[in-house]
Structure formats: C-alpha cells, structure tokens
Amino acid sequence: MKSKILLALGMLSWVTLTSACSAPPNCPTCGTTRNGTVVAINTMEVPQSSPFGKPFTVWDLVLHDPVNRRLYVTDRSHAAIAVFDTATDLPIGQVRGGFVGSVCCEPDRISNFNEASGPNGVVWTPPTVAGGKLGNLWVSDGDSTLKVFNLDTDTLPVVVGDRTASQAFATVRTGRAVTNIDDCARGTNVSADPTGNPCGDLRADEPSFDPEHNRLIITNGDGPNGAFVTLVDTTDPTCPVTGATPSGRCVKAQFVFDGAPDNQTTGCLDPAVSGVVRAGVKCVHVGKNGAATNGLGGSVYNSGTHRFLQAVPQVGPNPADGEVTELDPVSMTVTNHFLLQGLGCQAASLAIGPSNNLLVGCANREGEAFPPSTFILDATSGAIIKSIYEVGRVDEVWYNSGDKRFYLAARDLENGSSLGIIDATNNMWLYNSPTGGNAHGLAADPVNNHIYIPLSPNPRCGRFSAEGCIAVYAAQ
Prior knowledge:
Number of strands: 30
Strand order of the largest sheet: 2-3-4-5-9
C-alpha cells in the first residue's frame, strides 16, 4: 500500500513539471513535432539515497533487461547497482559486492577520480544455474575487475542498517588495479610501486554482450600503458583460476590498441608491468590507423555481421580522427576499421538500429570542444549514411525497438544537458528534451517505451530533488 501511495504522490508532483517541459508546436529546437514531444512523466527514488543515506550524485552507465523488464543503474555514490522494475516504474533494491565506489585522490576532496571509480558498466546474460530465472549480471569496476552476480540470489532489498553484500560468482581480473591513488593522481611514485606504475590499468569500463557466442568484451581505456579490450566467455561465471590461467579460465583474449600491425600476437607488455595478457590469454594487436590515444568508448554486438563494434574516440595524434573497430569474437581477430577521419567525432557510444544502421554518439573528451555531431553508418561497410548536427556531445546512446527511435544522453550541449531523439526508420532528428546536469546515461523499455535517465539532485526530480533520482521520460 505504501508503494502505491508514494507512486501516486510522485505522479502528482510531476503535473506542473511535465506541463512546463512540453514544447509548443512551433518549437525552434525540434526537427518535427508530428509525433509529439518527449517529456518527464515520473521519477523513481534511488535505493539508499533517502532516507537511508547520502544523495545519488555519481553514476556511469545504464542497462535495461527486456526479458525481465529490469533496469540496472551503476550507482557509484552508494557503491552498488540500483535495480528497478520498469513494468511498474518502482525501485526493487540493489546489487552490492565490494564495488570501488566514487574514488577521490585524497581525503576531503569533493571531485571524484573517474578513471579509478566504479561500478561502470553492466551486461546481463541468461541464467547458468539450474532453475535460475533472472540471469547473471557482469559489472565492470574501478579496480580493473569484472564482478559477476547471480541475480536470483544477489539482488538485495534495501533495509535500514543492512549493508551486506552478496556475490555468487567470480571476480574476473582484466588488468592491474591502482596501487596508490594519490601517486596515480599526481603522476608520482612516492609509494615506490615496483613497476613504476601506481595507476595500474585503472578502471574496467564499457562492456557489451554477444548472445550468439555467449561472449562479452570490456574495455580498459584509461591506463598509462595504453588501451585494451578483454574478451570473456560468459558460459562459466565462476571463471576458475588455475596456474595456467591466473586471470581466470573465462578470459580468452585481449586486443591491445597500441598501433602495432593488426592481429600481430607478439610484443605485448609483461603482466608484471601491466595486467595485459596473462598466461592462457591470446594477445592481439590493433593499429591499422594508429594507436588509441584518448581511451576507448562503448561497444555493441552486430548480429548482422556476427562481430563486435568498438568505439575509439581518437586514433593517432589528431583529436578529430576517431574510428569504430570491428572485432571477431570467434577467431579473436581484428576484421575491419571504420575510420571517422577529420570529423571531430570522438566516438563514445554505439547503437544498432533497423537496416543494420549504426548510430555513433560523439563526445568531447579531454578538453576538445568539437561542434555537436552524430553519425549513422552502414554497420557492415562503415559508409556514412547520415550526418546529424542538431545533437551530439553524448556519453551513452540507446536504440529502442519498441518505438524505433535512437535516444542520446547529450550532457554537454551548449544549452544544457538534453535527451536527443532520432527516428531510426528515416534517420531524422526529432527533438532535444531538457534533462539536467551531467545526465549522461540512459536506457529504454521497449514495452512501454519509457526512457530512464539518472539525474543528480535536480528540480526535475520533483520530491526527490535533494537526493537525485531516475527520471522517466515518454512521448506525449
């Protein structure tokens, strides 16, 4: 009964806000209004943000599981995955398992050290335990690990005073963790890390899943020894460690974006220096167009070509040059490069839509302020189908099969953070709907076509304005 009353109050609190958010028919920022505008219709409270703890202010990526209609939000503020039911738009609880959380370089500093924080990204895979219903969750973390959970046993309700973590499966190592955060932040080695590298390989980040071969890829893009992608077999989430495979038996390969010739398998860094390439793991170099010199973005599996596509914000010395790299999860080889030369698109996130079209969300990274842009490519050839300049500077993008639209978390637009909407049937930009500060993650439910956007404390959170929330957007 309490949940129904709270939901009703939340809906009432949005009456004024949704009216204010609606755009007039002659909206100057709209590509078309024939399908109506997209506005916030509701909010969801983030577990443990109130009344249990501190506000929800720092997060990374968002995932929606369409099978069980659950939303997973990487909540760094509470070192947890916040879990929501998108059939009812209500919180369920958390997944907690020793996540790093929002890391800062010294005590009492407000700003977080993004490159060592976590959790960062999530992948949902089908159940591997007999009788399992909810499946498994693979979560990338700030200590260069991938933590694996059984959602049937590890999804925990939030109880006052209860901070118990539950992790049924493995912790998979993708690289070396930070050994001293202060040295890492300052570029010093006062702590005398024996490798000379107190940063290790920093956070494991953006993952994506191949349901045909039951494999996922995950990035380490921020470390001082260069960017790499780890390929993991998801059929055995216990990922046992043996003498022959000290990184875990499920780790199959690492693609090192160092500019060496494609598919060369020699000359990788020693594991004592970097976490890259342990015994039993194939080393594959990537470098036709140069090294990845500004980290790695998101990835997506293309069922049309049976390949992964990996966003690379910058290749070589020119910040305007990015690319999308195609990787074969079976042969564990580089198979293609879609070069975005001179476009100023620091590719951040990818989504596959109808007709094998690939949306590339472009970001601003490391102080490079390119004009907003979004590109739609042929996901087989890499040819540019459409260039869109009304929206860009995004982090996460999403394709919603329910309404056949692309959604973009455009956090760095000149007029403030917005939700960008593109019609995926004709590649037409439709509308930018205002969101809030640093609104950079999103996902959609294809059944009700609701779009879910994490917001830090913000007036759009209604009665949760002081705590932060998950805002629910929908077409009107």
